[in-house]
Write a structure and sequence with these properties.
This protein has 204 residues and is α+β, with helices and mostly antiparallel strands. The chain has five helices and 13 strands. Strands 1-3-2-6-5-4 form a six-stranded mixed beta barrel. It has a four-stranded mixed beta sheet with strand order 10-7-9-12, with no helix packed on it. Strands 8-13-11 form a three-stranded antiparallel beta sheet, with no helix packed on it. It starts with a strand and ends with a helix.
Length: 204
């Protein structure tokens, strides 16, 4: 994925955003560049690669291989406000969170159980060129009461990957269906339509 950027001076970031661009920084131990990127182009790139795939960031004719390390969001508008790009070195491992994708419908779900997803990504250390877009795990064989753990992902990752999460952590389980007792059902108050006092007003 390619994305163009421009070096940024000390101008107003508010004006920059109003022009349709986002302030950003490109950094590592030897590098610190203030840049800006087109907001729509970044949105398209970020939706495609997320935080676990490389972006070829062209800064005024020089290309940097980067990962999106952080996106500061406007909490009210839910729009990006600032981006941190981490420039990687081809020969140095990086730490990334790789999305987990679950394939198949568990046997236990077909029998009435519920799929309980506890983790949606795995944290690994790996060379940039070997970063997987995602790791897929088959859950179709899981019965009620069974689960998969981080250790079950190892075989689906590149052999060079070092898993940084606890291997005993559960990532997904099939749990029994929830049963609501009669006492609990009776304790639920019925919905009241209208405001208090409407009945008396109607009879006046």
């Amino acid at each position: 994925m390619k994305l163009a950027a421009e070096k940024r001076g000390k101008g107003s970031v508010g004006q920059l955003r109003r022009s349709g661009r986002l302030p950003a920084v490109v950094y590592n131990k030897e590098l610190n560049l203030s840049v800006s990127v087109d907001a729509r182009a970044f949105d398209k790139a970020f939706r495609a690669v997320g935080v676990s795939s490389l972006i070829d960031l062209d800064v005024d004719g020089r290309t940097h291989s980067v990962l999106v390390k952080q996106v500061q969001m406007d909490k009210r508008r839910r729009e990006p406000m600032h981006i941190d790009f981490y420039a990687v070195s081809a020969d140095k491992p990086v730490t990334v969170h790789v999305p987990i994708e679950f394939a198949g419908t568990p046997v236990g779900v077909r029998a009435g159980g519920q799929l309980d997803v506890q983790r949606r990504e795995v944290n690994i250390s790996i060379l940039p060129r070997l970063i997987p877009n995602h790791v897929e795990v088959d859950v179709s064989h899981l019965e009620i009461g069974q689960s998969l753990h981080v250790s079950d992902l190892v075989a689906h990752l590149p052999s060079e990957a070092q898993v940084l999460d606890d291997l005993e952590l559960a990532i997904v389980a099939v749990v029994p269906p929830r049963v609501v007792s009669e006492d609990a059902a009776e304790a639920v108050e019925p919905e009241v339509v209208g405001k208090e006092g409407d009945e008396e007003s109607a009879g006046e």
